[in-house]
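Quick start: load a record and inspect it. Here is DUF998 domain-containing protein:
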Amino acid sequence: MKFLKKYGFYFLLLAVLSDFLTPYILGIFYPELNQMTRVMSVFGDVASPVRGAFLVWSVVSGVFFVLALPAIYQSVVKTSRTLAILLVSAIGLYGIGDCIFTGLFSIDTEQASWTFSTWVHNIGSGLGYAGFLIFPLFLVMLYRKTGEKGLSNVYLVLLIVSLLSAGVYGLARIPAVNDLPVLDKIGFCQRISFFFNYLPIVIFGVDRIRKP
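Running the structure step on this input writes:
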């Protein structure tokens, strides 16, 4: 446990890097997949030529996120036990729900109805993304509590941008409007949204590593 508390934020940054690079590296081996119009989970579809690599990679990324949890809790608990639990829960939900569950329960786009695996995948992904999305909110609360208004304002701006990009991604999933410009590129919308979700985590991880 001491090892995880000491190096947990390195695992956090490694998790973000691993998760972020997944579609771009695997896309090299799946050139026929249009990443502008297809979501990342399609890499794990039963018909995907990189399915095995994607599923394993997703689990590995999720494990890295989970390994970061003790360090996150330890670094915040002295300020607020409640915020420590909320931050750990947010990252834990993403690591388990959107990474590990993605690797263990893949989707099948060729099935007319959802299979059990698809249900678990989508529910886990939804819960994980929710944790991913509200993580900056807890950081705003944390740094306001510690009196670090500059960092609090940075995370507030990132939270707003993250919510806006998530809103665009959400609209891209609605059939009634997803034929509009930009919204017809759901893969692009998802990747932009995820980038702004990753950013607060990276800044938080780097900040904690730099602090003695």
